[in-house]
Amino acid sequence: KMAAAAGAAAGLWSEVNRCGQNGDFARALKSVNKILQINKDDVTALQCKVVCLIQNGNFKEALGVINTHTKVLTSDVIAFEKAYCEYRLNRIESALKTIQSASQQTDKLKELYGQVLYRLERYDDCLAAYRDLIRNSQDEYEEERKTNLSAVVAAQSTWEKVVPEDLGLREATYELCYNSACALIGQGKLNEAMKKLQKAEELCRQSLSEDSDVTEEDIEAELAIIHGQMAYIMQLQGRTEDALQLYNQIIKLKPTDVGLLAVIANNIITINKDQNVFDSKKKVKLTNAEGVEHKLSKKQLQAIEFNKALLAMYTNQADQCRKLSASLQSQSPEHLLPVLIQAAQLCREKQHAKAVGLLQDFADQHPANAAEIKLTMAQLKIAQGSVTKACMILRSIEELQHKPGMVSALVTMYSHEEDIDSAIEVFTQAIQWYQQYQASQTTGANPKSPVHLSLIREAANFKLKHGRKKEAISDLEELWKQNPKDVHTLAQLISAYSLVDPEKAKVLSKHLPSSDTLSLKVDVDALENSHGATYVRKKAAKLTGDNQQKEQGQGEVKKKKKKKKGKLPKNYDPKVTPDPERWLPMRERSYYRGRKKGKKKDQVGKGTQGSATTGSSELDASRTASSPPTSPRPGSGAAVSATSNVIPPRHQKPAGAPATKKKQQQKKKKGSKGGW
Question: Where are stretches of biased composition, namely Basic residues (predicted)?
Fold first, then answer.
């Protein structure tokens, strides 16, 4: 029996070896299971079974075999297979522990270690791991390692805003070009990134077209991720229509990459904003597809969740919006956006005071983010009309008090409230801050910074505008001291002193340059020959000539211009007296009868026998005496008999016209009130 079993096992092993070489792992698994029936603890057979299951994609079952036979399949024997199964099952932390617990770090484990670190977004460690692999490996997978290395650099540039170093990688493949473009996008070099993507598209087409089995649909599917990145660049450049068109083209291809679809759907939602919300609600379903969470980075997933909360707010789903934003806040307590979304939702519900309180609580708990929160609070106060309170909030942001933008905003708001003293105080505090900063940074008398001088000038102009000349003098003197050749500042200083200390103004006026020293460097000939000067000169000459003619020809008779004979109508008859009312508008002539809508048709024989025919409006029971009168019916007034020799009213007043327009209208109104 033992000899027969050994012979059968040998035959089965031969079958396993043959199937493995042919890539038929399903048949190999059947043979391995038969071997395990003979010897259930055969280490080699168990290893082969795990490999067959992995090759068939049954990672969960393979991991189950490893965990069931831990005594036989120790970590030294099966470490790589176990870590790989955990990696493919998205148990990334477990895979990392398995790799780190292995007694010997083989090349396969190092390769997997780099992939695990990338998924965990530990980019610095991942970069070091791939560099070590490239340096110490020489095989046919060198191009793939370089591609992975460039992907790590692109991720650092995109998510960590790290300026990537030049790795000296030759961009011979479309994957390397694509990763290089992603790194450029992270640096904000959008035009360069677009050129790289175009090169990547060209290389991809060349590479895939060499394979006769690849169809055009396959090429477009492979290009989808490149086109998606192109659309993203267009969106960043403000070309939203072009980006939207390209995004929708990619969705129509129905790519199998759920991560790509989720990103494109999210970007379309950001373009739609609060418009086209029904399309956004359809697109948001693509972000909920199974496996999306394993395809995207944490920041991408977070951005999608933020946009879901905003979409809920735009679609008036208040409870859903609060639920999503509260969940986001619990996941990232220090992040601003969840709190801002909650505040925006409260404002939509007209609960401004509650929104301000929510923001104030967050600012107290997270002082590092207080500046942005306080800016939002100030905006809410302005929306409520509390400008003074908004100014108080803005002035409490110490790190922004001296910024020119903040100073400008505060001065504008205080001026709107006619609080000039507070506006001047804002200028004074900002100028003092720059003085203290300059004193701490340098020693001795150094020239003031351009921003400092600009603030002093703006303060002086503001004070002069509001009649504070005494206060403006010190600022102007400081400016003139910094630049004694500044004539404009000197003129302002003299103007200010002229109302306060005229003697001082006279003394300062001596520093003004004389008119002889002022060389305007004007080309007089060019100025006189310019279009405007020529027009003025010609006009002046014309006026002078007219005046001379008036003076010289006072006794002469002024020549009269010949009037052109007016054109007469074609049917003009000189024997007929023209209509005296021909110059009046038709409506104001005594014989005007109103506009005719059409001749009354002969209605004889068009009703029941013996009945009188009437207009349809007179048969309408709703048109009773209580109904408001309608416009007169054509033909209800006295008709004028037509003749073959018609003379236009302009030339001849028709015979038999009614006396006046007013009487005729009254007559028509009476006729329109007939009820049934």
Answer: 558-568, 660-676
Q: 414 and 391, same structural domain?
A: no
663 in a domain, yes or no?
no
Asked if residue 177 belongs to a domain, the reply is no
377 in Cβ contact with 353 (< 8 Å): no
Q: Which amino acid is at 471?
A: E
- Closest to 631 measured CA to CA, from 660, 675, 594: 594
Other Cβ atoms closer than 10 A to 243: 23
Q: Exposed, middle or buried, 178 (CB in 10 Å: 0-12/13-18/19+)?
A: buried
State how far the Cα of 356 lies from the Cα of 273, in Å rounded to an integer: 24
Of the chain, the percentage scoring pLDDT greater than 70 comes to 78
What's the pLDDT tens digit per position in 327-372? 998 888 888 889 999 999 988 888 888 888 888 888 888 887 788 8
Residue 333 covered by a domain: yes
423 plus 499 within the same structural domain: yes
- Residue numbers of the chain with a pLDDT score lower than 50: 1-3, 445, 555, 557, 602-603, 605, 611-676
Owning domain of residue 357: 328-400
Domain at 449, CATH number: 1.25.40.10
Q: What is the largest CA-CA distance in the chain?
A: 154
Number of domains in the chain: 3
H/E/C letters for each residue in 399-437?
HHCCCHHHHHHHHHHHHHCCCHHHHHHHHHHHHHHHHHH
Taking Cα atoms as reference points, which of 145, 143, 73 lies closest to residue 113?
145
